[in-house]
């Protein structure tokens, strides 16, 4: 399938349809389109301008909070966003720029957008952002497992020849390519669900179909065990596919959620960095040319947005039932405390940080339990800025890498090559020689903590040696060409205290509905990836941001 630089809605739908056809599950198409498209527009729920003089506080200037503000503005509300970071919005969309011209950057948070994530595309189009393909894998990707190298040829031959002998596999496993071993284990459980039931994988409902509850009880690892794979095969597959191996003890619903919505097919990146998405929202709030964003709304009917950045919310209080909600926030620079009353609140901060906020009175006991128990997984990312791209040289092991990723059983787990030379992928011309940024570590859970918690110098040393061994380069090679380095251990990031919400077995059934319900008699609504059906994706955060705005519109119009 040929990649299009900036796919239109029609082209996106065609690609989704083609992928589903290839996967023999065309019946999922209408459900996918329905679930992944933007919810009803807020102006169909209440008249434009009708929210004047109603105040709304949004806790968190991540993508969920920004999208909620963008939508609420259409009705004329008076909106205040509280963002703990002083110099940055966007939360877990976090691009680090290595140079003044912002040409070279590493994505410490979100980096790719699947073709099917229609809500993200809706805002990309609306805000006029540019995209280019994100190359997910190529035959030049390599594996380095138990000190053995293999290349990513489409037949899986190299892995069978070089990696299989290191594992204790059954005769049948030895003869089956690894992708097939993986698919044979994963796909039947999805296929056996009817399309209507499958859709529940990404839905938030008070009650789920018994088949979904069963699936939610299983961990990723259980899926492989149920398929009869040997211990050796499970370990090998976990290393070949770190996105599976790192999450062996997570609810399999998370795995099926990504398979169901084609999250690893036909991916894109935002030109100039993912941070351009939150930045575009920010610009829209303060741009005098509002017609660009709201062509059908008279400017005087639009709401206003105040951004209180560097203000960390420390307390949420409702003094009288059904009354206004008071937010107490601390200025992180001078530590002064401010209090402000609001008619409505949208709380978009992760439950991991909400746990440290004082709630007066407490939320419902079920919600408090969800806040306490909903599981978050760690992720660690390091980005390295090199004066030359050793991975694009002709003689590099498995061939030059113009995108894609490599995997290893070393703690760095996976490493991602930049896609900015993707146009040379099938070209006879070599890409120009220039500096480049390698995402030298992208790992999760245990390895994220084990590598990410090492002291700074030790961490860089370990990563450099692992990058060299992965690419069969001599020791010390990296040190001579490395210009700069940055990393993030998301568990240690104070404003998320974790990478993303990811259910443990049984948690979708127990907590997904209650986590998303309003509190304080419909005065406080919740948004963010953690209360969505698409954890760990911008799509989920955006959908809940729009939904929370819509809930307020519905509630206030009834009470008006
Ligand atoms: C390593 C990593 C890789 C990812 N890769 C992808 C990807 O490739 N594609 C994709 O689509 N998604 C990806 N995601 C997921 C995506 O980044 C998130 O789903 C999304 O950004 C979450 O947005 P949010 O608004 O729900 O939360 P956040 O972005 O966390 O926003 C919450 C905001 O609240 C602020 N805050 C927290 N506490 C307080 C407080 N007390 N007071 C005031 N403000 C506070 C925070 O500073 C933050 O700005 C990735 C996430 C991670 C961590």
Automatic annotation (TrEMBL):
InterPro entries given in the database record: Amino_oxidase, FAD/NAD-bd_sf, Flavin_monoamine_oxidase
A matching Pfam family: Amino_oxidase
Annotated organism of origin: Garciella nitratireducens DSM 15102
Residue ranges constituting the Amine oxidase domain according to the UniProt record: 63-552
Domain of life: Bacteria
GO MF terms, alphabetically ordered: oxidoreductase activity
Protein name as annotated: Monoamine oxidase
